Amino acid sequence: MSYRHRLKTLLVAAAIAVASPMGASWAQGPIPGGTLHLAAPYGAALKSLDPHVTYNSQDLVVSKAFHRALYTWDSSNNAPALDLAELVSTSEDGKTYTYRLFDNIYFHNGRKLTSDDVIWSYTRIMDPTKGYPGSVQVSTLAGAKEYAEGKAKEISGLKKIDDRTFSMTFNDFVDPGMMFFEAITAILPREEVESGKFLTHPVGLGPFAFVDHVEGSRISGKKFDKYYKQGKPYADAVDFTISGDSSALDMAFRAGELDATVLSENAYVLYKADPELSKGLIEISELFTRHMGFNTEKPPFNDVRVRQAINYAVDRDIIIKKLLKDKAYKATGWLPATSPAFDKERQPYPYDQAKAKALLAEAGYPNGFEFTATVTDGTSSLGVLEAMMPFLKEVGITANAKVVDSNTLVDEMDQGLAAAWFRSAGTGPDPINALRCFDSRVSRPACNRSAFKDTAYDAILDEAAAERDPSKRIDLIKKADGYIFEQAPVWFNNYNKAVVATQPWIHGVDANVTEAAIIEVDSLWLDDNAPGR
Amino acid sequence: MFLLIGRRLLQSMVTVIAAVTLIFLLFSVIPGTFVSSLAGDKRDIDPKVLERIETELGLNDPLPTRFANYIGNLVRGDLGTSFATQRPVTAVLSARIWASFKLACAAIGFAVIVGLPLGFVAAVKQGTWMDTTAMMTAVSGLSIPAFWFGLLTMYFISLKLGWLPTFGYGNGGFRHLILPALTLGIAPMALLARTSRAAVLETMNADFIRTARSKGNTETRIVVRHMARNAFVLVLTTIGLQFGSMLGGSVVIENLFAWPGIGALLTQSVSMRDIPMVQGCILLIVLFFLVINTLVDIAYLLIDPRIRYR
Lengths: 533, 310
Hints:
heterodimer; A: alpha+beta; D-Maltodextrin-Binding Protein, domain 2; Dipeptide-binding Protein, domain 3; 2 domains; 7-stranded mixed beta sheet; 4-stranded mixed beta sheet; 17 helices; 19 strands; 32% helix; B: mainly alpha; MetI-like fold; 13 helices; 77% helix; globular
């Protein structure tokens, strides 16, 4: 069976896994009531309750309950969808969008949403002293950079037309949905943010109003009665347990204390083998690409043949199967399998040590070389490097590990000190944004950690960004991804397969490829068997 | 006694200053800054913005300036603002201190209630099956990794028996406290059992015990009035040291049970290089430790009037 066929089978199986339990339950129709018990599963605490401040997956999981952005991620279509407004018009040049906010949207403090809130929120995100993560998205608006640099008093690309209507003008042709669907661009009420209480008592537009936060343990909310989607949320309350301990989450899930949680590699194997637990598994190919990055400015990785040789030298199938317990999909490029521009035709680098040796000899390393990769402790980083070592040794390459914490890793990458490193990069949903990580004009700290420089590649990306025909645009993006695949500024490892375990009594869990743990909580409902009822 | 408290306060100040200086210097030399944690946060920020943030947080100031600012604020009781949460350090700490204190008290309570009798029985019944059983329990308690013991309690008590919640703080009630306290208290319990056994054995053969026996005192009275009181000086030291280290030393337990304590906050702050928060946590832990030790010293005087501090 070819890799392409296997990937297709897996994705179809994932879709069926998602659809089956939901399909059966929707026949009864959602039942209102009960308390949702969910997990914020990536750490022992939340970084901030201000959604503009944090881009941690952990915080995004929780923000979905309390906040709303202009767009939302529609898992059923695997694309962003307008959430707070309708699109009134798009200008001829495709750069200006006019929106009209729905008339029934209220903040948790009872005030109606207006155009001013949208404009204030986006302007706040561009505050040059804060470095809010959403500034990357908002800076695509005309005049946003000028505002951040202090050259303008407002963002010229944001125009209020009336209390419910506003327009957004972009510098280039972009899909605004890709820019404004995450909580980092949530619309917030100015008066609450400036009140000084917002960091402990957040107020938003989400389906649940904030009730309580026990730092490092729990955050909870109650149903917001004036939520703008009729009949939603179905549940009366939501309760997130904050815990990054996968063993504890596993125990709590098995004890029925959690309605859904994400699984680690080891738990995945056990759940898959269990006839009952396996029924509630949702497998998702997330928009993350795990890789070993190379510093392309220094030998030996300044030679494309060396980089390709490493891609040929390692049997990734065995690493995925044995080490990662099949909880990953083999990477065939920078853009992951669920990216709109994923090239299904492209084959991954095959395991071919003869080819690797030949490439090394051509590059002037017939006897191989020695290098040190900077890694963090963990299966997908140090574990994978250790699994690679024997394969690399076979072609004469001695790989050493320098184990550091994540902050030191970032410093070593950004300062160009690391020769190679392991990382999981967010590679979606906007494919052009993801591919900008190899744009010559992008600095290391701003994403181009490999310091990859190729003007031919930049030109393809620019052409793709300017192209308005969707299918031609996708073709150009695929071409750019293929270019990176050939140039191999990274060792293409895998795309993360996230697995969400769900209890039989919870319904409406969506398969969110941007981050599996971010669940659209307003659509969740509990049947009569739920302990939370 | 007041002299003792005064002297202890003076010593404590030196300890606090040393700890604060050490932590400050340590975080100045280790690689990675708070700004690196922002870049690692799935976002790609313009380097100019990162530079601005560094300047705003004072990370680019010379080391002596930063240290002087920190000490100046500390003297005024201002622990600064957390880089990560942008909230005052004191506010974040006060939200967590009660949970940590409660857990430490419950764990030490469990250790004392179980460990002390276990040690006493083992000593009084030296060489019998009771002694062997008690010491086997103690050795097991010391050698079992807390993380694994915690998982075992979760599995049997929560998952299999369904008696208690697996993890979380709940509403701060007793039911959520039991498992983490049991897990945190198991090692101190074992240590207390061993210490108290050794202490009782030492006093058993002392002259004053023989005198008490020759006066016709009952065994119970001898154990409770004479042996226990004398053995307690040594036991108290163990309790003090264990209790003092619990506030910051329960990281694993707090993370496992999603317990909102200081230990978990400290590790999280270290990984984010949130220096004001780290300094605040360590200061609190050091102060707690010093207070407990001073209280233990005072307790020595009350238990054994022969003890004098010079």
